[in-house]
Amino acid sequence: MKFIIPFLLSQSILLPIIVGLIRLRRLDKGYQPFFILLWIGFLTEVVSFILIQGFHTWNAIPVNIYNLAEWTLIVWQFHAWGFLRQKKAWFYTLLIFAACLWMTENLVFMNITHFSPFFRFFDYSLIVLLSVNKINFMITHDNRNLFRNPKFLICIGFIIYFIYMIVYYWAFEVSLFGKRDISNTITFLMAYVNVFTNIIYAIAFLLIPAPQKFTLK
User: 74 with 37: CB under 8 angstroms?
Assistant: First the structure.
């Protein structure tokens, strides 16, 4: 039961996936990296549950691989929304730098069987900064109701989730030294933060407008 309830709550990721599938024909290409990320997240949760419950082993390897995919797809998502679109060399340099950091920590120092804190801190912190920057841009350039803007909602979800993930993995590292009271509380609440952000993502998919059709008159 210790892992079953968090696993069941993690399956709330199916909410945005199902909404995305229902509205697949209306799903703009500008949201495809995020939609792919949700599918990879779902598969990672299933594999992690099987490893922990079926094989009684850590899920560090699939989670570490997922972190690299997560970073790549989210940065690609921001690129689709305009981030470094006119500076592709900088964009690819950022992707390569992150990949090198991941490989150094997980492969060179052989930490792939353990949760890698340095790449996570870099990954989560930069995603939060990208989300804040995107929200600031929308506030100054978009006069519409932002709470009906799917990009705004997804960025809000990113900020909530990844700030909590930074706290979550800090608590995990602290728990390794025996201080488990606060880490247990943070770990318990993580599942509910996950549900909350998945609901936000599902609402965002509901609000994605149909792609505009251009006609010659």
Answer: yes
Please report, as a single letter, which amino acid is at residue 215.
T
CA distance 200 to 129: 19
The pLDDT, as a whole number, for residue 7 is: 86
Residue 31 DSSP label: G
pTM, full prediction: 0.92
Rounded to 5 degrees, what are φ and ψ at 6? -60, -35
Residue 130 has pLDDT above 50, yes or no: yes
Q: Find out whether 11 and 196 touch, Cβ atoms under 8 Å.
A: no
Residue 179, pLDDT > 70, answer no
Q: Report the amino acid identity of residue 199.
A: I
* End-to-end alpha carbon distance in the chain: 63
- Torsional class of 84: left (φ above 0), alpha (ψ -120 to 50), beta (otherwise): left
Residues 155, 178: Cα–Cα separation, whole Å: 35
DSSP at 87: -
CA–CA dist 96, 200 (Å, integer): 30
The pLDDT value given to residue 84: 92
**How many angstroms separate the CA atoms of 183 and 73, rounded?**
29
Got the DSSP string for 126-190?
Answer: HHHHHHHHHHHHHHHH--S-GGG-HHHHHHHHHHHHHHHHHHHHHHHHHHTTT--HHHHHHHHHH
Query: Does residue 148 carry a pLDDT above 80?
Result: yes
